[in-house]
Specification:
This protein is an alpha/beta fold. It has helices at residues 38-41, 55-58, 78-84, 91-97, 127-135, and strands at 73-77, 88-89, 105-109, 119-122, 124-125, 139-142. The protein has a domain at 73-142: Ribosomal Protein L15, Chain: K, domain 2. A 3-stranded parallel sheet has the order 1-3-5. The chain has a 3-stranded parallel sheet with strand order 2-4-6.
């Protein structure tokens, strides 16, 4: 077989229909465009909706989305814990001192130093904070999240992420 012997399979290359060339064959007169109207006469974009606000302009163009299941912690650094003067630290005692909100999930972060052994109960700890507390002779206790092992409840409404 040589290059000049190659041919496409029978029926795979079909010549396009030339319409609007007289009444002799298929596609004469109106050339498959029907009768009258804007589409029969001129070029109308495929996305044109007759003057109605087009879909690509109706759809909001927000970048990304807001995760309705995001867990927000209130961060608290080691220097704040050290300055509080408390030996037994929990979200309730921190709320009493005015360091966190009422129903806040507390996360202990590692900025600063802690100089004395303390017992810290919080919902989350950064690795550096946990290491610093245990190095100072303290103990770390991770509190369970209010919704348990399941995912957190969704925030917002049906329009939030649209």
């Amino acid at each position: 077989m040589k290059v000049h012997d190659l041919q496409p399979a029978a029926g795979s290359n079909k010549a396009r229909r030339r319409v609007g060339r007289g009444i002799a064959g298929k596609g004469g007169k109106t050339a498959g465009r029907g009768t009258k109207g804007q589409k029969a006469r001129g070029q109308v974009p495929a996305s044109f909706e007759g003057g109605q606000m087009p879909l690509h302009m109706r759809v909001p163009k927000l970048k990304g989305f807001t995760n309705p299941f995001r867990v927000e912690y209130q961060g608290l650094n080691l220097d704040s814990l050290d300055a509080s003067g408390l030996d037994d630290i929990s979200p309730e005692t921190l709320y009493g001192k005015g360091l966190v909100g009422k129903k806040a999930l507390v996360k202990v972060l590692g900025r600063g130093e802690i100089t004395r052994p303390v017992t810290v109960r919080a919902h989350a700890f950064s690795a550096s904070a946990e290491a610093a507390i245990t190095a100072a002779g303290g103990t770390v206790e991770r509190l369970p999240l209010p919704w348990g092992e399941r995912r957190p409840p969704a925030k917002g409404n049906q329009f939030t992420n649209r």
